[in-house]
Amino acid sequence: xxxxxAVLVTGATGRIGRAVIDQLVDAGVPVRALVRRPESxxxxxxxxxxxxxxxxxxxxxxxxxxxxxxxFLVWTAxxxxxxxxxDRLAAHPRRVVYLSAPHRTPHxxxxxxxxxxxxxxxxxxxxxxxxLDATIVRPGMFASNALHWWAPAIRRDAxxxxxxxxxxxxxxxxxxVAAVVARVLSGTGHAGGDHVLTGPESLSQAEQVSLIGxxxxxxxxxxxxxxxEFRRQAPEAARPAVDxxxxxxxxxxxxxxxxxxxxxxxxxxxxxxFRQWAAxxxxxxxxxxxxxx
Length: 293
Hints:
With 293 residues, this protein is of the alpha/beta class. The chain folds into two domains: 6-142 and 171-197, Rossmann fold (3-Layer(aba) Sandwich), CATH 3.40.50.720; 145-170 and 200-257 and 272-285, UDP-galactose 4-epimerase, domain 1 (Alpha-Beta Complex). It has twelve helices and eleven strands. The strands form three sheets. Strands 3-2-1-4-5-6-9 form a seven-stranded parallel β-sheet, sandwiched between helices. A two-stranded parallel sheet has the order 7-11.
């Protein structure tokens, strides 16, 4: 029987999409997952309906969008197909939750030149022009970035060398972001809002590394790396993202991070702290951990 109340999740195998799926499944919400390759969905819950489609081929989305009541949109493609994709969203479900960024937030960290922010703004404009019932979710820095940035050195028991250790951010737990998205998608409230999500406290990058060490029960040495050396170490393909991050960290020096209480307001419980996140991910920082964890 065709589902008429399913929620379609794009970016289904990514860190936020997958977490949203898990939350929806736990809540008993029928889920349809959009994937480019069926084999990539092998680890998704068995109750999830798998459909193939690609944001770069808008016509491929039609079957996925049929008989769904809401869509979680994570943009993972070049911008040129965005207008056609948004038009299809408007022709099928009337509700969309879009994973954006806090590019409207008047804080130095979020106001540096950023190609992704430009893309997000354009897609938001397209969504608004259709009259869709849209909710915009704007997470700040993700706590899970620590896995990609610092875990390799920590697993080797090496010094964490990183630029702008004094720069403060307010890392938000991926699970809190997913919980907010799932609540909106499930129809239990807060639809139609514009939500900036952060963790509950402003922490320097060096302090975040120290908290990971506290969770591991050992100190972790931190050494400031010059921006030029950080840039030289980055792969060529990552240079735009590296330049954006360096500019944002430099701009925020001397400023506490932008902190919101939105997560606690929407979920009715405190947002998870970075200390909690670190304690829950200890195994990802041990030598025995799979580097892809």
